[in-house]
Amino acid sequence: MIVSPIDYRYGREEVKKIFCEEQRITYLLMIEEAAAQAEAEFNLIPKEAYESISYAVKSGKVRIERVKEIESETKHDMMALIRALGEVSGSGSSYVHFGLTSNDIIDTATALQLRDFYSILVDDLLELQDSLVNLAEKFSDSIMIGRTHGQHASPITFGLKMSVYLAEVNRHIERVRESRKRVIAGKIMGPVGTGASLGEAALEIQDRVMEILGIFPERASSQIVNRDRYVEYAGILAGIATSLEKFATEVRNLQRPEIGEVSEYFNRETQVGSSAMPSKVNPINSENVCSLARLVRSFAVPEMEGAVTWHERDLTNSALERFTIPYMSILTDYILKKMSNIFTTLVVNTDRMRENLQKDDYVMSENVVTVLTRNGYERLKAHELVRKASMDGYRDGISLKESLVRNGILKILSKEEFDYAMDPVHFTGRASEICRNIVIESRKMKTEAYNW
What we know:
By secondary structure, the chain is mainly α. It has helices at about 5-10, 15-20, 20-40, 45-60, 65-75, 75-85, 100-140, 160-185, 200-215, 230-255, 285-300, 300-305, 320-345, 350-360, 365-375, 380-395, 400-405, 415-420, 430-445; strands spanning about 145-150, 150-155, 185, 215, 260-265, 345-350. Strands 1-2 form a two-stranded antiparallel ribbon. Strands 3-4 form a two-stranded parallel ribbon. A two-stranded antiparallel sheet has the order 5-6.
């Protein structure tokens, strides 16, 4: 019986495979093999024992069915794996899991999962970066209404809006890259972190195991890898999810019929928007991103709670982490891919942007104050003049331009100066340059993305 929507609706197989039970057992066995190899290299166990253990792992002799059978008796998942490995390790069976504790293997397996997922996460962010680079470049000069407090504000360009998002994605790429050395850490220092059973070479053996596995060693541990690492990871994914919800919310708002400036791609030949209203064209992908982003963020809290354990450890983190790390990773990848596709196929209606801008010349109030001030009129008086004209105009249902003329602005500015002040084309500031700068930064970042 399948219960979780992760199994039948959400997530990509490529990512789910990293966190599935079969692959996790593969990771666990890899770590047992790497530990045996390092212990043999430091003469802690016989070389022949390592070779037998290695053969058992590589040959696939450890069957998941056997592991589950033993677990049903022992009620201990790691002990079941250790026994199953010992059964097929021949002369090496006496040295399987030598000097180790369960979480040496479990936490190091989590590190391997994160190691493999980090590359996918960076790929996802770079794909989103590409989609935003294209929009920022293409629409760097496409003027539109800016909005603050849900109300019309001074003009911007659509490219600037996308550049703001692009800069945010770039910071997430930096966070992911920079956090890798802290998040992806394993340990094999035994049940209280002293490495006592590994002898004088314990630290060197641990370093060697992590070198074999391609991850970082925990520098000082209790029975478990320090959970501040996982808290940081959860925070990074929660932050990415927050950004994605913000981006998707903007698409949803701009797709409102009364705005109509952008919309998700909709296959008008086959796609159905509503079972009741055949006319509907809904931003369902953006809504899906928003919904799952909230779930991703919610998992960050139990991960923080799980970081608080008694003494050298207890089990209060164990059960919850079977959900937090896999679910956050799988769903973050899923909504990153979905958001990239939304932006890649986004329908941008620049004509509607200009139409909306032309309907409301009140968005030029800031520039009128600026032009008045630059022409020697005291700024506070200029602000009050434009404010009064705006309120009069709203009351009388006329344009700002008409109301300003009524309020005597042509006694202060020439007609040419006033026309210039009311033309939104002249009031997008350095928006185009900002777009170019962020695009250049993004392309440079892409070339360095995998310099771990």
